[in-house]
């Protein structure tokens, strides 16, 4: 029997599934991204990846680091493309200040959770996360396994 896959949102470009496993996410914020033309074309083709990406602050601005957008061969022949360049996040000043203070004073990490389309714009969902200990990760795995078993039992009845 074929394994059924969950339908994800059709507007989703990329998700950082590892972030929810490694961190307790306490707050999420939607941010815009400052992109070049070839990056938007590549994202339309689904060539984005958020693994190990995070947000850092410099000169009162927020930047997304380590997000990979692979260039299309046909669209980026006359540009010097850098797939992992830092991209500026478009946030309000109050949001930047609140995130930076949480990251510096309270020990949180600001992580990119997903990239998605909102109308014709690319948005990035970022979250404040505290790192999980090894025993927390094991507890998450146990809870996930138990939920799967409950679903199987409910379907068999």
From TrEMBL:
GO terms under biological process: trans-translation; trans-translation-dependent protein tagging
Residue ranges annotated as compositionally biased, kind Basic and acidic residues, are 133-148
Please provide, in alphabetical order, the Gene Ontology terms of the cellular component aspect for this entry: cytosol
Entry's localization field: Cytoplasm
Q: Which UniProt keywords apply?
A: Cytoplasm, RNA-binding
Gene Ontology terms, MF aspect: RNA binding
* Superkingdom classification of source: Bacteria
Statement: the UniProt record of this protein carries the keyword RNA-binding: yes
Q: Which InterPro entries match?
A: SmpB, SsrA-bd_prot, SsrA-bd_prot_CS
- Region described as Disordered: spans on this chain: 132-157
Family under the similarity heading: Belongs to the SmpB family.
Which purpose does this protein serve, as stated in its record? Required for rescue of stalled ribosomes mediated by trans-translation. Binds to transfer-messenger RNA (tmRNA), required for stable association of tmRNA with ribosomes. tmRNA and SmpB together mimic tRNA shape, replacing the anticodon stem-loop with SmpB. tmRNA is encoded by the ssrA gene; the 2 termini fold to resemble tRNA(Ala) and it encodes a 'tag peptide', a short internal open reading frame. During trans-translation Ala-aminoacylated tmRNA acts like a tRNA, entering the A-site of stalled ribosomes, displacing the stalled mRNA.
Protein name, UniProt field: SsrA-binding protein
By which gene is this protein encoded? smpB
């Amino acid at each position: 029997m074929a394994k059924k896959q969950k339908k994800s949102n059709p507007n989703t470009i990329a998700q950082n599934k590892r972030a929810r496993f490694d961190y307790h996410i306490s707050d999420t914020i939607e941010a815009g991204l400052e992109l070049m033309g070839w990056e938007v074309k590549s994202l339309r083709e689904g060539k984005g990846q958020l693994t190990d990406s995070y947000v850092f602050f410099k000169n009162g601005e927020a930047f997304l680091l380590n997000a990979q957008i692979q260039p299309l061969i046909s669209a980026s022949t006359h540009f010097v493309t850098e797939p992992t360049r830092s991209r500026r996040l478009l946030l309000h000043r109050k949001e930047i200040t609140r995130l930076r203070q949480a990251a510096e004073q309270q020990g949180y990490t600001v992580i990119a959770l997903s990239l998605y389309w909102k109308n014709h714009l690319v948005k990035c969902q970022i979250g404040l996360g505290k790192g999980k200990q090894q025993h927390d990760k094991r507890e998450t795995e146990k809870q996930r396994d138990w939920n799967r078993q409950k679903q199987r039992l409910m379907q068999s009845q």
